Amino acid sequence: MAVRAAVAGASGYAGGEVLRLLLAHPEVEIGALTGNSNAGQRLGGLQPHLLPLADRVLTETTPEVLAGHDVVFLALPHGQSAAVAEQLGPDVLVVDMGADFRLKDPADWERFYGSAHAGTWPYGLPELPGARAALEGSKRIAVPGCYPTAVTLALFPAYAAGIAEPEAVIVAASGTSGAGKAPKPHLLGSEVMGSMAPYGVGGGHRHTPEMIQNLSGVAGERVAVSFTPTLAPMPRGILATCSASAVAGVTAESVRAAYEKACADEPFVHLLPEGQWPATAAVYGSNAVQVQVAYDEAVGRIIAISAIDNLTKGTAGGAVQSMNIALGLDETTGLSTIGVAP
Ligand SMILES: NC(=O)C1=CN([C@@H]2O[C@H](COP(=O)(O)OP(=O)(O)OC[C@H]3O[C@@H](n4cnc5c(N)ncnc54)[C@H](OP(=O)(O)O)[C@@H]3O)[C@@H](O)[C@H]2O)C=CC1
Ligand SMILES: CC(=O)N[C@@H](CCC(=O)OP(=O)(O)O)C(=O)O
After folding, report:
1. Cβ distance 267 to 338 under 8 Å?
2. The domain 147-310 belongs to what CATH superfamily?
3. Across the beta sheet with 301-308, what order do the strands follow?
4. Closest Cα to atom 7, ligand 1: which residue?
5. Which of 101, 196, 301, 337 would bridge 121 by S-S if both were Cys, CB 3.0 to 4.6 A apart?
6. What string of DSSP letters covers 167-205?
7. What SMART domains does the database record attribute to this sequence (predicted)?
8. Ramachandran quadrant class, 71 (left: phi over 0; alpha: psi -120 to 50; beta: rest)
9. CA 106 from centroid of its chain's CA atoms
10. Ligand 1, from 19, 20, 36, 59: best to mutate by most atoms within 8 Å of Cβ?
């Protein structure tokens, strides 16, 4: 019997991407599609790439509309998911692509999001040690932020192997879809095209505590993180350049061995052959993660670089991968590692 899935926020980027993936998922049938300001509009006018759903009309986001589904994907702005989720029964699998349930420490939430903490759900990054067990059979999933996905997948092998000191410096470039579809002056084509610029510099980005939470969980001690995001003139993609001091005795060979071990059985994380470097173009529209690592002996630092599609593995692909695990399906069902090139 098909899994019936509703998508709240179907007019947005994350909602559109999860629909693109669900249309190709052999076990899923698409049910209600909801919006806010676009309720009453045809999906074809909002997401013209989703041709099979073009004549579907968005409804208001209400508990009545979302009831009666096996899975409900929430692709809503931060702070909107909790009120919707609490009205959905405990038997419905709720997959939240927003931030509301990602953080464990309420003080982190309050500091970075400025509202009351809604709670913590099983975290939808299956590659993290212990995550798959927590997702199996779960009825609630908190999908990670796009930058924390890229950064955690670049650095977890180093912390799992105990070869990195508990401090990491990260500079990551993101495509503009990471900022959502709502119009913002800094996202005008004339502002973004032909330019790259940092933002959230100096520890202010709300994804910093999520990265610290993930990496500290793997390391078994608090990992300090310096994170600088930058906006890149491309619609999709994140390239995360991460570095951490190596512990004494580390060599280029031991770094490589740690990454080979951690990535060996991961269906979506691809450690590239030595000498080849991750590129966002290679993972465009795919759930794959490209990772490469080097040991910079001159400064004693491990340099780990990852590339993801922020909307696929960074949001909707991670959501579907986690849904598959929660429902007892093969983790890779409906997900592709094939990109689009050039
Ligand atoms: N873009 C990305 O790379 C990533 C996004 N996410 C998360 O996914 C969520 C959605 O982001 P994104 O798709 O980029 O954002 P968009 O701005 O593109 O879409 C937002 C969606 O939410 C709907 N919406 C807005 N306000 C309300 C409300 N008050 N009640 C119900 N629905 C509402 C909008 O409906 P309408 O258009 O009809 O007004 C639209 O469908 C966010 O929480 C974001 O953090 C997570 C990881 C990465
Ligand atoms: C380019 C850009 O603006 N990116 C977004 C992150 C998008 C994302 O993954 O985050 P959430 O799910 O936590 O919103 C930002 O920096 O705010």
Report:
1. no
2. Dihydrodipicolinate Reductase; domain 2 (3.30.360.10)
3. 197-198, 224-231, 164-174, 238-246, 301-308, 289-296, 269-271
4. 98
5. 101
6. EEEEEEEE-GGGG-SS--GGGSHHHHTT--EE-STTTT-
7. Semialdhyde_dh
8. beta
9. 21
10. 36
Global model pTM greater than 0.80: yes
pLDDT tens readout for residues 97-148: 999 999 999 999 999 999 999 999 999 999 999 999 999 999 999 999 999 9
CA dist., res. 333 & res. 324, Å (int): 7
Quick: pLDDT tens for 21-55: 999 999 999 999 999 999 999 999 999 999 999 99
pLDDT exceeds 80 at position 1: no
User: Does residue 313 contact residue 145 with C-beta atoms inside 8 Å?
Assistant: no
Residue nearest to ligand 1 atom 45, measured at CA: 98
Distance CA 163, CA 306 (A): 18
Domain ranges of the chain: 3-144+313-327, 147-310
Rounded Cα distance, 124 and 144, in Å? 6
Write the pLDDT tens digit of every residue in 277-329.
999 999 999 999 999 999 999 999 999 999 999 999 999 999 999 999 999 99
* Confidence label for 341 from pLDDT (cuts 50, 70 and 90): confident
At 102, phi and psi to the nearest 5?
-80, -40
Fold of 3-144+313-327: Rossmann fold (3.40.50)
> 325 CA to middle of ligand 2, Å?
25
Can you name the residues that pair with 239 across neighbouring β-strands? Answer: 173, 307
CB atoms within 10 A of CB 110: 13
Backbone angles phi, psi at 313, to 5 degrees: -60, -30
Query: Based on the number of CB atoms within 10 Å of its own CB, is 176 exposed (0-12), middle (13-18) or buried (19 or more)?
Result: buried
Q: Indicate if the pLDDT at residue 88 is higher than 80.
A: yes
Average pLDDT over residues 140-160: 98
146 is catalytic: yes
Q: Considering 28, 76, 146, 164, which one is annotated as catalytic?
A: 146
> What separation in Å is there between the alpha carbon of 19 and the centre of ligand 1?
13
Paired strand residues for 93: 71
